[in-house]
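Note to self: the last two entries modelled the partners one at a time, which told us nothing about the interface. This time every component goes in together.
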Amino acid sequence: MIEFHLDAGSGVSPYLQLVRQVRQALRLGLLREGDQLPTVKDVVAKLAINPNTVLKAYRELEHDGLVAARPGVGTFVTRTLADATLAAHGPLRAQLRRWLAKARRAGLDEESIEALMTTTFRSTAAEHAAGQDHAGQDHAAQVHAAKDIA
Amino acid sequence: MTALLRARGLGKRYRRRWALSDCTLDVPAGSVVGLVGPNAAGKSTLLNLAVGTLTPTAGEIEVLGGRPGSGAAQLARVGFVAQASPVYPRLSVADHLRLGARLNPGWDDALARDRIRRLGLDANSRASALSGGQRAQLALTLGLAKRPAALVLDEPVASLDPLARRAFLQDLMEAVAEHGLSVLMSSHLISDLERTCDHLVVLIGAQVAVAGDIEHLLATHHRLSGPRRDPATLPANQHVLSASHTERQSTLLVRTEQPIHDPSWTVTPLNLEDLVLAYLSRPPAEDGSRRVLAAVR
Amino acid sequence: MTWLTWRQLRAQAVTVFGALVGLAVALAVTGPRLAHLADIAGDDFLNLAGANRADSWTYDVGCVVVLALPAVIGMFWGAPLVARELEAGTHQLVWQQSVTRTRWLATKLALTGLAAMVAAAAAGLAMTWWCGPVDQAVSATHGGAGPLSTARMTPVVFDARGVVAIGYAAFAFALGVTVGAFVRRTVPAMAVTLALFVAVQIAVPLTVRTHLVPPRRDTVTITPSSLEGFRGTGPPSGGGHIDALIVALDHPGAWLLSARTIGADGRVVTNLSSTLAVCLPPPDGRPSPERAEAYRRTCDAEIAKHGYRQRFTYEPAGHYWPLQGAETGLFLTLAAALAGLSLWRIRRLS
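The predicted structure of the combined assembly is written out below.
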């Protein structure tokens, strides 16, 4: 069973932190199909947060098709993220390594590399968002969610 | 669904001073409401009016559809943990539980005993021998075991160390999750309120400065920074809460329902503490007129 | 609510009832002996009993207990009832349980008030039982010397026996609760309760008691045997003054309210000194027994000539229980009124 934690000072809204932690766990294989997520009561009793926060996070995961709620029983994982993208990770990681080496050879320091990545990433994410129809989610949430890949 | 709290023009006066005036609120049931404001702003007064310890001088208030303090049924529906968690010094912890059991038809003895055991309180020790944190936990136990539909707390964690404070909030939120308890609590610790509450009321100078759903408040308040600019030039739907300027830069805190399209601004969200502080640090209106009530849903 | 009332009263109740048990033991030990003494001593009983250290001490202590009990109850059971809750803030705890303030106070008033009345009844009736031989002796004879010979009809002694303590205790308790509800602080409430209670206890015998059961008025012929003496001031030769005639009232155990000399016309005589100049002792010091006797006879003749009579206003011994009952009823009514006031006050407290 996954254990949540909350970073109160991170500026990321609590429910998003929970969503991210579930996705991360799924990606790393810590959560598998059929596993039960902690009950709302248990999460709330540990983190001292509003139950609606947990409900909202679970609803979003359900909307993304990752979990399903069974009334009276609990919330269960229906799909993992581990397999689909892991295979692609290897080659992508190698390409990224080569690009980073190039950037360093070009004379960019660490902060300039990060700034370049962030701004390029943001502008492409904005184009990506304009293309997709994501009604109801606010802009900031998208930017944060899209940074997930890092 | 009945509202948790409904107030219309609520006011309370002591001799010549108005401790609370012209308070109009609508809070939905099932909310966890945070009440924040400077000292003597009227927080305790509002909470005491909500539980019936005080009677209004003006206006009216309804909690869960009933008049506060009006009879045993209303008293059973609404629990109260007063500031400084009063307990009977000469009575033991077990005596306090017996008090709760005898005076409350809805008393959940199993819950009370389980909590006491989990908290590690000695049932036979006198309440005067408990520390401040333990007293607060005892008072909270009495409030929870009564199984009210709503619990009102006046600065419940003010005198608690960080560990006791976290434990208190954990237990409170667990009760909210498990029993659908509505909560109305005042606190100075806005970080606590941010993680536990979904509704906020800010009282300043005996009046409501702003009130509403926290998510909505955070979505409609922004920090704008950009080149130096006169706040009066902003569009009418953007209400400036505070403005600070340097030679070349202006930073404004604004409230607006509409999105901000002006590209010269860098828009960043506020966290709840900044939002509350923005209201708290506003100077009183110069002409003495009442502040605009921002009753946001 | 019953349990809570008892739990909060427990310590105080144990103290009071413990003291009463002590008193009861002392009375139980000395009582039969006292009764036995009354049987064998006859007329001398009151003097003997007064001289006996154990008996007179038990009597004094018993009287003090019965007299003090209502005040103690008012101060320690009544005054803190509401005031301590308000002072400590515990009213915010207990008035938020599922009982209304009215039910909370009404239960406490009823149960604690009942306990107070039971305590006062026990003390008062125990003393009545113990003092039985004493009271019988007082009403049979014309009294004697010593502390035990004061008639039970007289003020203070009246309060120290019988059932009237029940009314006092209920009143003092209700007074304490009401004062506490207005003053809101325990120690000042205790002080105010004591002050008011003492003031009432002083005022009632002086003003109210005689109206509860009207006293009797007897007009008695002054005879040589009934004339016991004079009361006056100053030397007889230099403007001496007879203020009053002391005439015996043939009602043992009565509470004498006033004794006035009235003339044949039925009006109070104002110038006793001038009309009874012969009754003043002669200026040349103490006369011989024969001459004193002559003076007495002249004086008596003078009184008879004027037709002077003595008018007494008094409460006879037989009025004791009616008066006790009436006063108890009065104080219970006052207690009920105060209880109502405190219930009203508590609803308006904010």
